[in-house]
Design brief:
The chain is 31% helix and 28% strand. The protein is α+β, with helices and mostly antiparallel strands and 180 residues long. The protein has one domain. Strands 1, 2, 3, 4, 5, 6 and 7 form a 7-stranded antiparallel beta sheet that branches.
Length: 180
């Protein structure tokens, strides 16, 4: 009888330990995904800043150039395969493509997979809003919102709905035109 009680108590302890380990593992994976998403969102705004700076360096206007859409736009992605300045802000009407990870190149990227790239659980969309009037020709500033989702979530309609429970994170920045 004592052996049965001992086995029962040890079994309860093992089940509790395994349950605790699995819940901690899920939390660690969730934290890792949130950190990656935050970095990808930050990278989105930095790439748009780089596009603006490259245009100015090439003698073009800050926002009215071949690398930006002509008017405020949503559902934009970075096209790293576009030759001019290394990147281009490509705005699409439909869904935003998934991210891919290239183990040979060692980075995440948008659009179509390279030779060995693997599809990831992350998606990023970049929104640009020109001020004033919403068009690049008259713009003196641009609000850039880079939003990243992961898992099976979908992009919320507003940044206010973007949080960890919806598996979404975003970064916003205001870029001003210079040398225009």
């Amino acid at each position: 009888m004592e052996v049965l009680v001992s086995v029962f108590l040890i079994s309860i302890g093992l089940v509790a330990a395994v349950s605790l380990i699995s819940s901690d593992l899920a939390r660690v994976i969730g934290n890792r995904d949130q950190a990656i998403a935050g970095l990808l969102a930050q990278e989105g705004t930095e790439l748009v800043t780089n596009i603006r700076d490259s245009a100015v360096r090439n003698g073009e206007l800050s926002f009215f150039n071949s690398l930006f859409p002509e008017s405020s736009s949503d559902n934009c992605i970075i096209d790293p395969l576009f030759v001019s300045a290394g990147v281009n802000l490509y705005c699409v009407g439909g869904d935003v493509e998934s991210f891919y990870y290239s183990s040979d190149q060692g980075y995440y990227h948008d659009l179509t997979p390279l030779d060995d790239a693997k599809k990831t659980k992350f998606k990023r969309k970049i929104s640009v809003d020109y001020s004033p009037l919403g068009d690049a020709l008259t713009a003196t500033s641009m609000k850039v919102t880079s939003m990243v989702i992961w898992g099976n979530s979908s992009f919320p309609s507003t940044t206010g709905e973007c949080n960890t429970s919806t598996k979404c994170t975003y970064v916003e920045t205001i870029l001003t035109g210079w040398k225009d």
